[in-house]
Amino acid sequence: MIQGSFRKYLFLLLAISSLWSGLYADSSRVHIGLFYEWLVFSAVVTPEQGEWVMVADSLTYPAQGMLYVSLVGDRVLFRGENGMRRSCEKLLLKPADSTGVIAIRPLHIPAGKRLYRGILKIIPEPIGLKLILETSLEEYLAGVVYTEGGGSAGIEFYKAQAVLCRTYAFRHFGKHGAEGFNLCDGVHCQAFLGMPPSGHPVYRSVTQTRGLVVTDRNGELITAAFHSNCGGQTADGHNVWIGDMPYLRPVQDTFCLHGRNARWTRSVPLSDWKHYLREQGIPEEMLHSNAGLDFFQPERTDYYRLGNYTVPLARIREDWGLKSAFFDIGIGQDRVILNGRGYGHGAGMCQEGAMKMAELGYNFYDIIRYYFHGVTIQKFPGKEEVP
Ligand SMILES: [Zn+2]
Ligand SMILES: [Zn+2]
C-alpha cells in the first residue's frame, strides 16, 4: 500500500519534472534564431575572444581568424584564412568556455556585425542559412534588455525590463519549436542584437532579478507588453490584443510627459485625408464641409467619430504609419494636422515613464505594479511573492 502510493507519487513527480523540462526545456539554456528577419546566404564568422573549435559534421578543427561560410547547394561551404575549404551538412562553432565571443557579419544585407556568446549552429536550408545560437538565458536576456531598453537608463528600469522580457521568453518558449529554436531575434519575438558592452548594467539587472517573472491572478504568465511612451495614458490591452487581460487596464501616467517620444505631429493634405475617409466608407455629404472632421481625444478612445460613422484609430495608425493611436485631428484651410501623444501600442509598461520612475527612486517592483494591475512578481515556477 505504502509502496504503491510511493510509486504513484514517484510517477507523478517524474511526469511533472518531464513536463517542466518539456515546456521550459532547461530554461537556463535557450536557442535563438539569429538574423531571423533576413535571408542570409553567406557570412563572415570570426572568433573574437577565447579559443574556438568548429565541428563540421563529425570532424573537429580549431577555429581561428575569419571564416567565410556560404550556402552551396544543400551544404554549408566554409573557407578559412589558412586556405582550408570544406563543406558539411551542419557546422558548429564552439567556445572552450563561456567567455568566448564570436562575431557574425552576414554579407549582402545591411544588418551589420553582431557579437555573441554561446554555441553557433549553421544549418543549410532550401533558401538561406539557418543560424542558431545556443546560449544561457542570462546572456540572451541581457542582450534583449539592452536592445529593447537602450544603453543609458537606470538600473531599476533595466530590472523591470528584464523581468518582463524573462516573462515573455518563458511564455513563448515554444514559439519557434518547429524551426528548431525557442525564440527568434526579431521584433516578432523580442529584439536581440547580440551582446551588450561588457560590464554594462543590463547584466546586473538580469542576475539581480534571476528567475523572477510576472503572473496574473490565476498564476499564469502575463502578456508582458511594453512600448516606448504612452503619451500620458496607457492603452487597454483589449485595444491591442484579443483576450481577457485584466492587468492591462489604462493607467494615467505623468512620468513620461516630458519624455523624448511624448508628442508628435503630422501634417497631411486635406484632399488626401478626405480621400482616405471616402475609402473608409464615410459618405460624401459628410465631407462637403470641414466642420465635424475635427477630433479631440483628451483620454484614449477607440474610434474617430464622424456623426454616426466611425473609423478605428488603430487602423488609422497603421494605414498612415503614425507613432501612436492617441492623437487629435485639427482641420485647417488645406491641411490636416494630427497632434499625437506617445510612441507605440501604449499597452503595459511605458518605457520612458518607467525610466523616469527609476530616476526618481522607485524600484522595479513599484514600476511593474504601476503599469500592470493586480499582478504578482515571483520566482518561476513558484508561489511566493517576493517582497
Ligand atoms: Zn519570433
Ligand atoms: Zn507613459
Compact summary:
This protein has 387 residues and is of the alpha+beta class.
Poorly predicted regions are 1-26, 382-387
Beta-strand percent range: 25-35%
Number of domains: 3
Helix content: 25-40%
**How many strands?**
22
What would you call the quaternary organization?
Answer: single chain
What number is the mean pLDDT?
90
Structural category: alpha+beta
Per DSSP, the total helix count is: 9
What distance separates the N and C termini? 42 Å
Biggest sheet: strand arrangement = 4-3-8-11-12-1-13
- Overall spatial form: globular
Bound molecules: zinc ion
Q: What's the main sheet like?
A: 7 strands, mixed
Instruction: Specify Rg, calculated over alpha carbons.
Output: 25 Å
How would you characterize the overall build of this protein?
The protein has 387 residues and is of the alpha+beta class. The protein folds into 3 domains: 1-37 and 138-248 and 345-387, no CATH class; 40-127, no CATH class; 263-341, no CATH class. It is built from 9 helices and 22 strands. It has helices at residues 2-23, 137-149, 155-171, 201-207, 270-279, 284-287, 313-320, 351-359, 364-371, and strands spanning 29-33, 42-49, 52-56, 59-63, 67-72, 75-80, 85-88, 91-95, 101-106, 114-116, 119-124, 129-136, 183-184, 212-215, 226-227, 263-269, 303-306, 309-312, 327-331, 335-341, 349-350, 376-379. The strands form 6 sheets. A 7-stranded mixed β-sheet has the order 4-3-8-11-12-1-13. A 6-stranded antiparallel β-sheet has the order 7-6-5-2-9-10, with no helix packed on it. It has a 3-stranded antiparallel β-sheet with strand order 16-20-19. Mean pLDDT is 90; it is low at 1-26 and 382-387. The structure holds zinc ion (2 copies). Residues 229-230, 253, 256, 350, 353 line the site of one zinc ion. The site of one zinc ion has 7 residues, from strand 13.
